[in-house]
Design goal:
The complex is a heterodimer of chains A (287) and B (280). Chain A has 287 residues and is mainly alpha-helical. Chain A folds into two domains: 2-50, no CATH class; 66-286, MetI-like (MetI-like fold), CATH 1.10.3720.10. Chain A has helices at 26-50, 56-64, 67-100, 106-112, 115-118, 121-132, 139-144, 153-178, 182-189, 194-222, 226-232, 242-251, 255-286. Chain B is mostly helical. In chain B, helix 3 crosses helix 12 (229-238), helix 5 (108-119) crosses helix 7 (140-151) and helix 12 (229-238) packs antiparallel against helix 13. Classes of the chains: A mainly alpha (287), B mainly alpha (280). The interface between A and B is large, with 95 and 102 residues.
Chain lengths: 287, 280
Amino acid sequence: MTAAAFPPRMPFVTARWRKSSALPGFNLTLGFTLFYLSAVILIPLAALAIKPWSLGAGGVWNVITQPRVVHALELSFGGSAIGAAINIVFGLAVAWTLVRYDFPGKRLIDAFVDLPFALPTAVAGIALSTLYAPNGWLGAPLAALGIKAAYAPLGVIIALTFIGLPFVVRTLQPVLTDLGREAEEASATLGATRLQTFRRVVLPALLPALMTGGTLAFARAVGEYGSVIFIAGNLPMKSEIAPLLIVIKLEEFDYAGAAAIGLTMLVASFFILLVLNLIQRVLLARR
Amino acid sequence: MPRRATEDSLATRLIVSIASIGFIVLFLLMPLITVFSQALAQGFDAALTALEEPDAWYAIKLTLFTAAIAVPLNAVFGIAASWAIAKFDFWGKGFLVTLIDLPFSVSPVISGLVYVLIFGMAGWFGPWLRDHDIKIIFALPGIVLATMFVTFPFVARELIPLMEDQGREEEEAAVSLGASGFSTFWRVTLPNIKWGLLYGVLLCNARAMGEFGAVSVVSGHIRGQTDTMPLQVEVLYNDYQFVGAFAVASVLALLALVTLTLKSFLEWRYADEIAATHRH
């Protein structure tokens, strides 16, 4: 055996767009990845981008400016923003409690926070609807106060808050854990009150994570369907969400109209996420 | 002993704890209790009888069958994608990762809609499929496709950061010692990623069995044919059969609780062997 036979020559094709590697399987795995991604995700999404234009640009405009559609879009995006805001406030409280305080059952509550990820949306939907119905455990006391929760826009906000709940907590937890106490100690040493320390030292450090969590909760809520439609009551121009309008258009075999609303939702979410991302970059750069 | 300067006062602790526990009780615990208490409203036997209905049984089988196709396919995809992305450097990698995450930012309803646009009656291939008597929308293939779409990223997004963390040295050593690509994967990579893979499969499966919006759009709600468990929940609820609806819902809720328990166990026991983002 000659020395030249060892190490074995590895036959790999090296294209210019990738660095050479000693490992095999690149063509096979990337090929399968691209094929599967295209077949399951990209080509179907391309259909969504193409279909609305069979109505012509004027036709698409007519669909998405119908008062009923405009109202549904406003409710989906507005309700999601309110839900995200509620989650930012209470998510901060939950994350703070779980990271900073010690109490029995903490591990259980920590695991429980992920429930909205694991519980099927239809199950959450009928549960929330029953809970907040005028004769429900929470709906009855609210009704006594004159507040209509289920079958009203408030119900939509409740469901959208539920669905986004884990995001802020899960984004904040690692940041809070890593946030050393040195800065807080220094601030206290220099005579700041606890509230001043929180507002001037802790909150600015948490702000990017709060925004990321809020953005994720918002993005999840905008498209939410299952947990909302039962509690919403789905009254046109009142408590009807945009995804439901897509379903209604499909039932009328108005594919292009359904696609027009779907595409509008995707484009609008994309721009909102882009703007939030830019704001966050500015925040991070200032620090 | 005086309170440390970085500790909250008793009043703050009380307010923050009550706000957060109250929030969790109101938004998480009470809905969960509602599911089980409504299912058992007329006793355990009534709930059990509701589950023994043929339509409910069919829905359970259809859900298991759908997950049995969609989850393994997405797991194989996740392994292939993470091998290509974590073990090689190539142009456009970041963009590819973004595309893989795309289904998470798409509404479930849109995830179903896209397949209707392609395979539905008035869709691109609708007339051709009808002429050849192939049913995709309002049939099993549509349900599986929609489920695949919404659960697409789960395994890949667990494995990509994990395999990137682990580097390439072990595989390179195995290959340079003459191991084939497949046996390198089987003997070196897979043992390293098995808990991360299980974690991803667990989350993927929970979503696959519970998906409602996407499946609802492509299913057509044909009872005993295209109604999965979540759809059966909707049908029964809209029929005012609350015990039946909540009985099926309880099975799904139990599945969610089992998933959460296993997930927490994996995070606790194998913290170092699943993706860094889940280490508490």
